Amino acid sequence: MEMVWPRILGGFEVISSATFHVIATELVVGSFAMAGICFLVKTLQSFNFLASKTISEVTDNTGHFALGFGLIATPFAIMSGISSSPGSDISSPLLINKMFLSMAATGLALSVLYARYAIGQRVWANKQSSLTQAFAGLGASGLMLLTASLGGKFTRNESLFDAFNLSFDTILLMPVWATGVILITGVSATVLAVLGLRRNSAIQH
Amino acid sequence: MISAMIILLGFTSFGGANPGGVGDGNFDMQCGGACHGDASQNQTSPALLELTLDSTAYLDLPVSVTAKVSGIQFSSSDKVGLFLITDTTGHSDLPEDADWMVISDQNGGANNYIELAGSSLSSEYTVSWTIKPETLQPTNFYLSIHHGSENTPFFGISDALTVNPENIPDNLPRLASDYSPAIARDIGENTTMLVETLDVQTMTIEWRLIDGQSVFVNATNSDTDQYSFELPAALQPSIIEWRAILQGDGPDQTTPWFRIAAQEPALIVDQLQIYLQSLALGLFFVGLVLTLHNRFRTTEQLQQDVELDRLEDITQPDEQAMAPLPEGGLPPGWTIEQWKWYGHEYLEDSK
Predict the structure, then answer these.
(1) Residues A128, A194: one domain?
(2) Do A112 and A201 fall into the same domain?
(3) Which residue range is the domain that position A152 belongs to?
(4) How far apart are CA B328 and CA B43, in angstroms?
(5) Model confidence over A51-106: pLDDT tens digits?
(6) Are residues B28 and B129 in the same domain?
(7) pLDDT attached to residue A2
(8) Pairing of strands B253-254, B238-247
(9) Which of A116-120, A123-127, B115-119 has the lowest mean pLDDT?
(10) In this structure, are B22 and B100 located in the same domain?
(11) Fewer CB atoms inside 10 Å of the end CB: C or N, chain A?
């Protein structure tokens, strides 16, 4: 089994990549689950349920902090997951779908955190913005939990989501040109949106 | 939330076993706690375990060990995990830790741990491993079993089977010491199997599907000390067992059963394409969410501007309320702005 950090502590093999993957995924799943609960509450608050200033502040801070912490642990989980898989590469439809889902979740989480940073608490100021933020946070949490669930499916052939009979034995692999279009669209949209948010932020200040 | 957790817990088994198994692999006896969630919950399995060596073990030549399991009943969906190990400490107990190589297992792999589907119709299971000694040291082999029943993890281990590998006698017809047969092939392709030998003059191959009838073919001597034979294409995932009957100047030898599994062709995808698409998906969602935020923020900004204009309008004097201009126009020195505000007072004073 491939080892990570083999040279630490004078050459002792400290920890296997599979064990490191378990540690990293537990951190990711725990953090994203906590964030998911907070964004669920924020979604309800967008529809005027659980309207409480204290709950609003607590879920806002906790949700974003948990999401940020989970996001930091995510690259470690992805890299150790790849290195601990049989053959140390992506060779199964389940693993490929895990990669797609985790990166989509990472993208959503990044956007949620940047929006909160750029807009501040006013991200919850109107219903549209509030729903966007809450649904993006929920989506990030849901996709990451689904990714973790597929890990259980891969190693133990069972997962919590078996009840939904989701099929991950096939992959939606786009042609390179389509990937390029999405990539360019994503980068352009991100740059324009960031510039727009910064301009609005400057006007506001 | 608490109710949801309680409902989910209601659907779980409270035992420490993983009913879906963990898949075949090279695992120590305790398999890092992966097979059974908590080894301290293990109960002693009622299974009777027996391990036997099928023939004399020679240094660097493959030999089979057969395991028989009896005395357990499963529900139809249960898995049985079986370990071939060389120690009972729970770690560093793989055959390779004792300088033995696993060449093939019952499921068409080359693992010391395999899983079988338990059957409510059967209480006896027979499996075998083909292994090869790379040392003349006597080695103890054990068969360990992990299974679940009634939401409880069970564990069992057999008595030791001591194997003393011997040096190869002169002129013994045998496989080459570095020969390692193919153990996997793709569905739908005929397979030419190559067998490397020493001191062999003729070779007969016996092959069969698991539990099927044997077919005998003569292997072709394709090169010095190299024979070949054909296996037919498989139409679905399946395992073929084969063994060679070797004849030469020394006593005839029969090799252990080797297994070759036919499986779906491995997924071949461009790794770079996967990474690129993943990155594209991530960036797409970043762009999507931020664009929405930007749009709603701009709308909010516009609404605020409109609101500001409205407030400014409120502070402006009403055009309708402006005093009518005198006949000669604005009084000398007045501006229209001043007239809007103070025209009424001028007219009052002029009366």
Answers:
(1) no
(2) no
(3) 3-169
(4) 113
(5) 888 999 999 999 999 999 999 999 888 888 877 766 656 668 888 898 899 999 99
(6) yes
(7) 40
(8) antiparallel
(9) B115-119
(10) yes
(11) C
| A126 in the same domain as A29 | yes
**Tens digits of residue pLDDT in B136-153:** 999 999 999 888 776 677
> Under a CB-based contact definition with an 8 Å cutoff, are residues A160 and A166 in contact?
no
- What pTM value is reported for the model? 0.60
Q: pLDDT below 50 — which residues of chain B?
A: 15-16, 32
Contacts of A82 in chain B (CB under 8 A): none
**Closest to A107 in 3D by CA, of A83, A143, A82, A64:** A143
**CB-based contact A96 B279, cutoff 8 Å:** no
ipTM of model: 0.89
Asked if residue B244 and residue B192 are part of one domain, the reply reads yes
Cβ separation of A128 and B296 shorter than 8 Å?
A: yes
Inter-chain CB pairs, A–B, below 8 Å: 155
Q: What is the CA radius of gyration of chain B?
A: 41
Residue B214 in tokens: 């044997």
The whole-angstrom separation of Cα B285 and Cα A43 is 19
CA distance B279 to B272: 10
Query: SS3 for A41?
Result: helix
- Measured distance CA(A80)–CA(A71) in Å, rounded: 15
Q: Which domain holds residue B179?
A: 174-263
What is the per-residue pLDDT across B203-247, written as a single tens digit (0 to 9) for each?
A: 999 999 877 899 999 999 888 889 999 999 988 888 898 999 999
- And the tokens for A14? 């400290």
Same domain for A45 and A98, yes or no, is yes
Contact (CB<8Å) A157/B23 = yes
Partner-chain contact B290 A194, CB within 8 Å: yes
